[in-house]
Design a protein that fits this description.
Two copies of one chain form a homodimer.
Chain A: H1 6-23, H2 33-43, H3 50-61, H4 70-88, E1 97-98, E2 101-102, H5 104-108, H6 110-128, H7 139-153, H8 158-167, H9 175-201, H10 206-233, H11 236-239, H12 245-248, H13 254-258, H14 260-279, H15 286-297
Chain lengths: 300, 300
């Protein structure tokens, strides 16, 4: 069988994942149909699905079928989606457009958007603790996955990154230190967690787990630098949102601190570091290499 | 040894739990000290600690030492606290006073309050998946506890109750149906979950689990009816918040639908039903009976 091009592989996997994501959805009680509508609106609005695809691809690189891990792949996308809804709220970034559509609170109101985010975050852990997973991995493994996700999404990861971003003017730190902290926590932690959870479920060796974690951290950083660059150079129609919002919001970004050219070099450097980590593993990581390349080269 | 009076028992257990709660707290990275401060502010602001005490007392009723379950008792209080912070936000109930103190967003701003709530909710699941628990119960049992909590706090419980409360004017339902749905989901689900998680960890029989779940549901309802009554008859100094807010917010309450006298009768009826469930178990439930009585008789 001829090997699929990465573009075809990615589209196929993304569509397959999205069919599971739609089906993963909890049927909420009738009086609160609006909650389901609001959750679905953001969850099924498209996106790159980078985190779940990283999780699933990591498992497949070890030669295993990754279908059993779908509840966990969905769970991490629930977390990512909740964070977007809350980030867009008026008391946060106050954004009105996301993926080319009105943001959740513009469409459903602030109260429902807040609660849809809360519900997505909470239901993530209901998905992760479904008994169906026990047919394929141990309860101990699932507990570890839950722990990794809760830490990387919470006070030791994403939420701390967001707080640091908001609070940076009150903290004595150089711009470079602050930038490094914010990006590692706000974006890097959850992307790293996706690779770690995949590694855990695939039961890779301790050494491979460590190398794959390193890979996750580097592409997390690469992803965020590229995100900052696209906010300067990107085109609204491709981005699905207006570029220039970082400048408008006075966000601390790589281009602001390092300039555009140096930022591009730093992104490439992260990509190279990521590949080096993959080379050190004992598994066939070609699809992860391609995913890393996609993160570096993306225009949206 | 003479049996402690319930008042002494309750104060002792509450203080013991609160010392664990304070120690359970994650040390967050330095640049986001404000996040820790904001989480601590609400988490350690007092309160009845009903949910964790129900969880711990359920275990003790079976003759077991409940200390090992402290991470889970703390976890459920994290969830309860997050829900209060988000409920108080301007886009929700817009409350400025909670337990006699300024609400979280008045003290720290809306953005930090939102994120402190998110962090408490997320960290709850980090606490529940700590490996220390595995010395005392199986990973499978902990997974079940996580599943119960995620479902009862999310789309099948608390969040749905909150949405139903907000949306009730758009839904074709009688006042009694709406009230029953809102209260069972918004308050009842998490209180029931506390008893169920305690029962699970104590490894009670299937029949006792079912009776204790019934007990949880009845005292959850009793608690909420009493809450509605206190909003009419309560005294600000005891409540720690201004009474009359339900009327101000046009909240659907038991006194509004049934009148004050009938509401008191309904609360007593729930209490009686709760005791009947306890009578049907094979364990010594005296402290749970006393907790139920406390729920019925409380003045704050």
């Amino acid at each position: 069988m001829e090997k699929l091009s990465f573009a075809d592989y990615y589209q196929k996997k993304k569509a397959y994942f999205e069919s599971h994501l739609a089906a993963s959805f909890p049927r909420v009680p009738n009086p609160v149909a609006i909650l389901e509508e609001s959750m679905r609106y953001s969850l099924l609005a498209g996106g790159k699905r980078l985190r779940p695809l990283l999780l699933l691809t990591t498992i497949e690189c070890t030669g295993k079928n990754a279908d059993f891990a779908m509840p966990l792949a969905c769970a991490i996308e629930y977390i990512h989606t909740y964070s977007l809804i809350h980030d867009d709220l008026p008391c946060m970034d106050d954004d009105e457009l996301r993926r080319g559509q009105p943001t959740n609170h513009i469409k459903f109101g602030e109260d429902i958007a807040l609660l849809a985010g809360d519900a997505l975050l909470t239901h993530c852990f209901a998905l992760m603790s479904t008994t169906a997973l026990l047919e394929h991995t141990s309860a101990g493994n699932i507990l570890k996955a839950i722990h990794i996700l809760a830490e990387s999404a919470g006070v030791f990861g994403m939420v701390s990154g967001q707080v640091a971003d908001i609070q940076r003017q009150y903290v004595q730190q150089s711009s470079e230190e602050a930038l490094s902290f914010i990006h590692a926590h706000k974006t890097g932690a959850l992307i790293t967690a996706a690779v770690q959870i995949g590694s855990l479920l695939a039961e890779v060796t301790e050494r491979d787990f460590s190398e794959l974690s390193g890979f996750g951290a580097e592409i997390g950083k690469c992803f965020q630098i590229q995100d900052d660059i696209l906010d300067v150079t990107g085109v609204k129609e491709r981005l699905g949102k207006s570029p220039g919002t970082d400048q408008k919001n006075e966000t601390l970004t790589y281009p602001l601190v390092f300039g555009l050219e140096k930022s591009k070099q730093l992104a490439s450097q992260c990509y190279e570091n990521a590949l080096r980590h993959l080379d050190n593993t004992g598994i066939n990581t070609i699809r992860l290499q391609e995913l890393a390349n996609f993160v570096l080269k993306r225009d949206h």
